[in-house]
């Protein structure tokens, strides 16, 4: 090969290799987005009190409408505003939007986790979107004593560059009656498949949304009616306005592995998965029930349903952790069977915050046919 030919081959290799490396380097990494905690804020010249006046005043973000930049300790109407991470957050007034452009991998699944707190609106909700997908997240229920909760939402990337947007659709008399937003993070999801040992996807609940390492309150999964885009892959959250909570072993007592789900709002919400079954064939559903070791001391109980079978599993909690195993045997009555878990009742911790039983290590297998009686 001549020197010229070698240079041509080398140049072609370089040109072929560059786009692949650029695409790999440009995709977002798991964790906080650039300036996801809003610690890098506007210049004083771009603020009118707390109101941000410039469209690009907050680095890495683009805003529209009535957006405020709030510092921890901000005093408003005899109420001191606390910030969960760092010292600064933003507040979205009526019809306000804040968004950031992300480089992602096309066709990949992602989960967004962010911290939010309600203010003076009675029916607070927030639109989260990555075009063409969007979700309306109810945030009026407060699950922590601080008033801040971490919510999750998932999407499948249709393009390699997408806009992540948070929009407040509220129409309050006071334009400042909008939600506070802080600590926005992303996590790539790898939806698990069913295996020979378990007919359920993500039965161990290990694949799920990003949980902030310094947040001891876990991450909420709001109502999700499609398992394909759930931040808890394989599972749907059936409710009108309430959530379930993903908790991790770094801050909670988890029966198995690194994660579990806490059912925090009684019968108002259910953890659901649909699975293909054969009518008339027997099946066995196994799972763990326990407490998160978070001070939830009460007579807890989980109700499990599958086909026409039901099982109530009581668990006497001291609030220090622990779990028990349970099994539900049933015969399928259709080609699709819903496996359902919900808390039997409401529970609160001594500080008044909502809590409930844990479910974890869920598996579904075919049972043995009973021998016919002669």
UniProtKB/TrEMBL annotation:
<keyword id="KW-0325">Glycoprotein</keyword>
<keyword id="KW-0732">Signal</keyword>
<feature type="domain" description="DUF642">
    <location>
        <begin position="31"/>
        <end position="187"/>
    </location>
</feature>
<dbReference type="InterPro" id="IPR006946">
    <property type="entry name" value="DGR2-like_dom"/>
</dbReference>
<protein>
    <recommendedName>
        <fullName>DUF642 domain-containing protein</fullName>
    </recommendedName>
</protein>
<feature type="signal peptide">
    <location>
        <begin position="1"/>
        <end position="24"/>
    </location>
</feature>
<dbReference type="InterPro" id="IPR008979">
    <property type="entry name" value="Galactose-bd-like_sf"/>
</dbReference>
<keyword id="KW-0964">Secreted</keyword>
<dbReference type="InterPro" id="IPR052437">
    <property type="entry name" value="Pectin_Meth_Modulator"/>
</dbReference>
<dbReference type="Pfam" id="PF04862">
    <property type="entry name" value="DUF642"/>
</dbReference>
<keyword id="KW-0134">Cell wall</keyword>
<feature type="domain" description="DUF642">
    <location>
        <begin position="199"/>
        <end position="363"/>
    </location>
</feature>
């Amino acid at each position: 090969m001549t020197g010229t030919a070698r240079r041509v081959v080398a140049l072609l290799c370089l040109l072929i290799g560059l786009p692949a490396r650029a695409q790999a380097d440009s995709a977002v990494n798991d964790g906080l987005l650039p300036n996801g905690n809003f610690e890098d804020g506007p210049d004083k010249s771009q603020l009118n009190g707390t109101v941000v006046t410039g469209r690009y005043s907050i680095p890495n973000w683009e805003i529209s409408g009535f957006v405020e930049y709030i510092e921890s300790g901000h005093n408003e109407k005899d109420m001191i505003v606390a910030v969960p991470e760092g010292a600064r957050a933003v507040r979205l007034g009526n019809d306000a939007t804040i968004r950031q452009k992300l480089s992602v991998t096309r066709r990949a699944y992602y989960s967004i986790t962010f911290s939010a707190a309600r203010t003076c609106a009675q029916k607070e909700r927030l639109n989260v979107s990555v075009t063409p997908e969007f979700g309306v997240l109810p945030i009026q229920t407060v699950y922590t004593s601080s008033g801040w909760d971490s919510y999750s939402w998932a999407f499948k990337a249709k393009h390699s560059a997408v806009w992540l947007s948070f929009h407040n659709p509220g129409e309050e008399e006071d334009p400042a009656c909008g939600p506070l937003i802080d600590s926005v993070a992303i996590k790539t999801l790898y939806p698990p498949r069913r295996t020979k040992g378990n007919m359920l996807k993500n039965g161990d609940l290990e694949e799920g949304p990003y949980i902030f390492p310094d947040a001891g309150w876990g991450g909420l999964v709001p109502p999700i009616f499609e398992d394909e885009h759930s931040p808890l892959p394989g599972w749907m959250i059936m409710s009108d306005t309430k959530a379930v909570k993903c908790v991790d072993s770094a801050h909670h007592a988890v029966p198995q592995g690194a994660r579990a789900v806490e059912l925090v709002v009684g019968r108002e919400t259910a953890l659901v998965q649909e699975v293909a079954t054969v009518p008339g064939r027997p099946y066995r559903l196994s799972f763990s029930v326990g407490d998160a070791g978070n001070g939830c001391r009460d007579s807890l109980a989980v109700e499990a349903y599958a086909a026409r079978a039901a099982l109530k599993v009581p668990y006497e909690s001291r609030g220090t952790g622990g779990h028990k195993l349970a099994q539900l045997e049933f015969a399928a009555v259709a080609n699709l069977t819903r496996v359902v878990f919900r808390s039997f009742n409401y529970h609160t911790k001594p500080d008044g915050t909502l809590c409930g039983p844990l479910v974890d290590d869920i598996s579904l297998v075919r049972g043995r046919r009973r021998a016919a009686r002669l």
